[in-house]
TrEMBL record:
Pfam families in the cross-refs: AP_endonuc_2
Matches recorded under Gene3D superfamilies: Divalent-metal-dependent TIM barrel enzymes
Ranges for domain Xylose isomerase-like TIM barrel: 22-248
Protein name: Xylose isomerase-like TIM barrel domain-containing protein
Length: 256
């Protein structure tokens, strides 16, 4: 599989051992993963498992508090596994700014973190949910945060959460030229369906308009398309069928 496709390992968190999870990704023909922190193992163990399955790391989700408390240790671990991109995945309610000035201040803090990581040839990105689609004037909270941070902070746009936040994903991706690291390829099920899966669907089997979203991501310079499902009933099916859909869709987009 030559397309820049990866799997977010959060999707597989309840699927067997870590070795079995990596094997599932490799057997689906996907050659790259986005990690969840350190995956609960040492850098040496992680490198052994990745090598055994022929997988590369494109990025890893690391909590904001971990970066605040010990940026140096986080950087050292990820350099040891040859990962150059760290993504802040989520803000709990106590961390979320309540106004525009708060989002600006948080963006400035993340910009300083990104500058420090850049000194070690590491990059920092931010992953959204729906609450960052809150608007202040003509900008969403996510846009305010990224503008305040400066160009060193990249965006990992979760298009399903963008849609749930009331924005059109294809149109919204036009806001991130030169800052779009990745999109999370996640699908929403039709309203009222898949409630036991938090309303998410296997990529390509829900209601997201991928014929518009994928070209828009490409136009914005996206580096990676990362498959994710927050609560899958069958995580292996998400990886296999999601990868099949994405490979075909990207090939079709390229051919047009």
């Amino acid at each position: 599989m030559d397309a820049p496709i990866a799997v977010q390992m959060y999707t597989l968190r309840d699927y067997g051992t870590l070795e079995e999870q990596f094997a599932t990704v490799a057997e689906a023909g996907v050659g790259a993963v986005e990690l969840v922190g350190d995956q609960g193992v040492s850098a040496e163990q992680l490198n052994q498992l990745l090598d055994a399955n022929g997988l590369d790391v494109v990025s890893s989700h690391v909590q904001l508090d971990d970066l605040r408390q010990d940026l140096a240790s986080v950087a050292a671990f990820h350099k040891a596994i040859d990962n150059d991109t760290i993504v802040i995945p989520y803000l709990d309610e106590s961390q979320r700014p309540m106004d525009e000035a708060g989002w600006q201040a948080l963006g400035e803090e993340m910009g300083e973190m990104a500058d420090k990581l850049a000194e070690q040839d590491l990059r920092l990105a931010y992953h959204n949910h729906d609450f960052e689609m809150q608007t202040y004037g003509d900008q969403t909270a996510l846009e305010i945060l990224l503008d305040a941070a400066g160009p060193e902070l990249l965006a990992e746009v979760d298009v399903a959460w963008v849609s749930r936040g009331g924005q059109d994903p294809a149109e919204y991706l036009g806001n991130f030229d030169d800052q779009l690291f990745a999109i999370h390829v996640k699908d929403n099920a039709p309203e009222g369906e898949a409630e036991d899966e938090k309303g998410f669907a296997i990529p390509g089997q829900g209601v997201m308009d991928w014929q518009s979203i994928l070209p828009a991501a490409d136009d914005a310079g996206v580096e990676w398309y990362i498959i994710e499902h927050d609560l899958p009933a069958d995580a292996a099916a998400v990886v296999v069928q999601g990868a099949e859909f994405l490979e075909q869709a990207l090939a079709s987009d390229t051919a047009e």
